[in-house]
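Hi support team,

I'm opening this ticket because the web form for multi-chain structure prediction keeps timing out on my end. I have pasted the exact lines I submitted so you can reproduce it. The total is 555 residues across two entries, so I didn't expect it to be a heavy job. Is there a limit I'm missing, or should I split the entries? Thanks in advance, R.K.
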Amino acid sequence: MNTIEEEKALLEGLAANETNAIEKIYRENFSTIQAFIVKNNGYPEDARDIFQEAMIVLFEKAKLKSFVLSCQIRTYLYSVCRRLWLKRLQQKNQYYPAFELLDETVQVEEEIDVHEKVNNDFHLMEQALLKIGEPCKSILEAYYIEKKSMPEIAETFGYTNADNAKTQKYKCLIRLKKLFFAQYKNGE
Amino acid sequence: MDDTLLLDAVERYRNGEMSAQEITFFEELRKNNPEIDQLAAEHNFFLGELEKMSDLKAYRHNLNEVENKLTNEGIISRKEAKGKAKIIYLWNKYRRTIAVAASIAGIVSISTATIVSIYSENKKVAVITPLVDTRLNQFEHKLTQIESKLKDASSVQTKTPVKPDFEANFRATAFLVDGNGYLVTNAHVVDNARNIIVENKKGDQYFAKAIYSNKLTDLAILKISDTSFKRVIGLPYTFPKYSAELGEHIFTLGYPREEVVYGEGYLSAKSGYYGDTTSYQISISVNPGNSGGPVVNKNGEIIGIISSKEANADGVVFAIKSKNIYNAIKASGNDSIKLPSVNSLRGLERVQQIKKLEDFVYMIKGN
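Hello R.K., no limit was hit. The queue was backed up. Here is the completed structure from your submission:
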């Protein structure tokens, strides 16, 4: 079991997207979650899915400046996975599994709702990116996702200088913004 | 102000790329110009969303990397469940359906059985029936013979062929208590037997001898006498010295058929027939042939040995408390018998427990 300091360090590592922290959390928790899901009508693939999802919830939480985890990571992940899995089973209209009621869990409803919204926005953005077409998609991905510098991008995409590339980037961004908001508002 | 310029300004503001002077100017501009302010807020929100997406993508990438690494190390099981594993998962998935189907089948068969027993009721003198299957009839012999012939035909499979010239007239259950070939069963199973054969799940058969038998406790210890028997390691269960609790869920494996059969139930009383304190009363469905089977609790501890059932009541079964095994071993005077001390069934799923357990539960036949 980790001390409070270790858990804090793990969460900071997670927020900074450090592989070491992710790996440690996986090692310490995955098997429990898999056992739980397989026991409750699931396949190991489901366990991988659900665990990833829970790791994302934890990541979103860890990134918040105001964030304080009031329980152990283990308990938190278990609660989130349990909630997510229950939801999925209900969606699939399967038998409501008889969870052991004595499990230690914490309330995670709110976080999961927030997470669903984040997920939704993520998909909207992805959709919008798919729709703007080339070269806009590649330029924006190069800058915002691959974190390349403007001079690099200018060279890759054949602009005479970084400023031209930058102008192009902003034009693309405005188009992306329009597409994003068009769907975003539809979705509301 | 041009849209592009504003976007640039917002982005630099977000990233902290503005000089102090610029910041003041920009904030001032927003304050005095609601239209620009609203647009800037929109830009800001949008850039935030874009940033979130990019963070999440990077994070997902790392999640997948870690997942792959751990899959290669075998810590996470591979994506496709194949063969046996799949069957277990399907079993887990559909066991509720199966349970429902099975209970319907159960109800049907129970009611049929009741009807049969009503019509064939005869006055029984003995209240207690030992659960040795003595009905091994011609038909079953034929079956065994055909099976063994088939096995012989596909020769390579069989390690130990069915013992020749052996006509068994009873069948029951026994289980290993020591990997060197020591088994425990009921005394009433072996007391009148001249020849005893034990057979494991794979169908390997060995001659065995009773080295101890006590009518009072109804326990017997067998030793496999065949030289072809190889020491078995990794007995997964232990024998608790403490008493089991009322209502504990228990299960058993046994040989009421030529194939191993699972049954489950609960502990219903801490004493046996007429207050016999060396036994438990359990509620479980058993049949002739289950005698000598282990009664296992959820932690994989053997708490008892099935011995008999009340003939005129359903599901009233008696099991000898397993602490009697300690006494039996002491009384047998054989110091070389070592009961297993490591329990590797604890915390496993029932199906996994059974899988591990069934290699150590033997069918016992004889005449």
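A quick check on our side: Residues 72 and 95 of chain B are 31 Å apart (CA to CA). Let us know if the file doesn't open in your viewer.
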